[in-house]
C-alpha cells in the first residue's frame, strides 16, 4: 500500500461562532437567528482537518491561546489525527475567534479577531523546518503574519516541496512571495483585489490570473462558485465545472477544495483531475452546517464519485 500524502499547514487556528439567520442583517438591525453552532475554524486548521479527513498525514504549525478554546482546539486536532506538535499555546493572546452569520441562501459574512494567530513567528516556522521539508505539499494562507508565511515558503521551496497559497484575507503581496508560490488558489473577489481589475467572466479571470503568473506564480486555480474553477498554468487555461448540490453553508467549502487539491496533487494526479475531485469535496462541505464539522471523509467522496 502506498504511503499517505504528507501535508504541512502553516496558518491560523480559530474558534468559530456560527449564527444561522433567514438573511444577512443590515447595519443597525437586530435580527432573530434560528440556530447557533460552536466549532473550530481558522483557514489553516480548516485545511489541515479537511486534508486529514481525505487520508493525508497532516502536520499543523499554528498558535492558539492558553485558554479553554485553545486547549479544546488541540484536543480536537489530535482526535482528527493531526500532528499538533507545533501548535503552540500563547500565554499573552487569546485563541483567534470568528463570528460567522449564514443566511438561508447559504451566503455568509464573517468577522475575525486574530488573537494568537497574529503572534505566529518566523521562529515558530523554523522550529518546525523538518516537518515542512519532509512534506509533499505546504499549505499557507494570510490569516497569520506574512513574514511567517514567507519563511515557510522559503524552506519548502529549497526542499522541493509544492507550495500552495490561499490569498485570504486578501492583501497586497510582495513578488518575493509570489515567486515562491507553485499554486495560488484565489476566489473571484480575491483575484480582483490582487490585480486591481474586475473579474466578471471566465475570460476576465484568465486575464487576471495571467497577470499573477507574470509576477511569478506558476499555477493558478480560480474558484468561481457556481461557475466552477479556472485552471491556468504554463500549458494554458482550462475550466472545471462546479458540482451541483443543495448548499446550506458555504463557509468551509473553499478550504475543503484547497485541501482536496493538495491531497490529490500529492498523490500524483494532474491539476485538472485534482481540481475535479476537489470540487466534490467543496460541494459536499457546502451541504452541511458548520466548518470543520462539515468536511467529508475520503469514503464519502469516493461514494459520491461512484454514484456519479
Descriptive notes:
The chain is α/β, with parallel strands linked by helices and 308 residues long. The chain has one domain (6-24, 35-307): Ribokinase (UDP-N-acetylmuramoyl-L-alanine:D-glutamate ligase, 3-Layer(aba) Sandwich), CATH 3.40.1190.20. It is built from 11 helices and 13 strands. The strands form 2 sheets. It has a 9-stranded mixed beta sheet with strand order 5-4-1-8-9-10-11-12-13, with helices on both faces. A 4-stranded mixed beta sheet has the order 3-2-6-7. Helix 2 links the parallel strand 4 and strand 5 (83-90). The longest helix is centred in the last third of the chain and has 16 residues, at 271-286. It starts with 5 loop residues before the first strand and ends with a helix.
Shape: globular
Alpha carbon gap, first and last residue = 26 Å
Strand order of the largest sheet: 5-4-1-8-9-10-11-12-13
CATH class group:
Alpha Beta
Stretches where pLDDT falls below 50 for ≥5 residues? none
**By CATH's scheme, which homologous superfamily applies?**
Ribokinase
Q: Helical content, roughly? A: 25-40%
Provide the CATH architecture.
3-Layer(aba) Sandwich
Query: Cα-atom Rg, whole angstroms?
Result: 18 Å
Let me know the largest β-sheet: 9 strands, mixed
Number of helices: 11
Compute the number of strand runs: 13
How many structurally independent domains?
1
The ordered H/E elements are: EEEHEHEEEHHEHEHEHHEEEHHH
Amino acid at each position: 500500500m502506498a504511503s499517505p500524502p504528507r501535508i504541512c499547514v502553516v496558518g491560523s487556528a480559530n474558534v468559530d461562532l456560527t449564527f444561522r439567520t433567514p438573511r444577512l442583517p443590515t447595519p443597525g438591525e437586530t435580527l432573530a437567528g434560528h440556530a447557533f453552532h460552536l466549532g473550530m475554524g481558522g483557514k489553516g486548521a480548516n485545511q489541515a482537518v479537511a486534508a486529514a479527513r481525505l487520508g493525508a498525514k497532516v502536520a499543523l504549525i499554528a498558535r492558539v491561546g492558553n485558554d479553554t478554546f485553545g486547549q479544546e482546539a488541540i484536543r480536537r486536532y489530535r482526535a482528527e489525527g493531526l500532528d499538533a506538535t507545533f501548535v503552540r499555546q500563547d500565554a499573552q493572546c487569546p485563541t483567534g475567534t470568528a463570528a460567522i452569520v449564514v443566511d438561508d441562501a447559504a451566503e455568509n459574512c464573517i468577522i475575525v479577531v486574530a488573537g494568537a494567530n497574529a503572534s505566529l513567528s518566523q521562529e515558530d516556522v523554523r522550529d518546525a523546518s523538518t516537518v515542512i521539508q519532509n512534506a509533499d505539499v505546504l499549505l499557507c494562507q494570510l490569516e497569520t503574519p506574512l513574514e511567517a508565511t514567507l519563511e515557510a515558503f522559503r524552506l519548502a521551496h529549497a526542499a522541493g516541496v509544492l507550495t500552495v497559497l490561499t490569498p485570504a484575507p486578501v492583501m497586497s503581496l510582495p513578488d518575493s512571495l509570489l515567486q515562491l508560490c507553485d499554486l495560488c488558489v484565489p476566489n473571484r473577489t480575491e483575484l480582483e483585489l490582487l490585480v486591481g481589475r474586475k473579474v466578471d467572466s471566465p475570460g476576465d479571470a484568465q486575464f487576471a490570473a495571467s497577470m499573477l503568473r507574470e509576477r511569478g506564480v506558476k499555477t493558478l486555480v480560480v474558484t468561481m462558485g457556481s461557475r466552477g474553477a479556472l485552471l491556468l498554468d504554463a500549458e494554458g487555461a482550462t475550466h472545471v465545472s462546479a458540482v451541483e448540490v443543495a448548499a446550506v453553508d458555504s463557509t468551509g467549502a473553499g478550504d475543503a477544495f484547497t485541501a482536496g487539491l493538495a491531497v490529490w496533487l500529492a498523490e500524483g494526479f494532474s491539476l485538472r483531475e485534482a481540481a475535479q475531485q476537489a470540487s466534490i469535496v467543496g460541494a459536499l462541505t457546502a451541504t452541511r452546517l458548520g466548518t470543520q464539522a462539515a468536511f467529508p471523509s475520503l469514503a464519502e467522496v469516493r461514494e459520491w464519485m461512484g454514484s456519479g
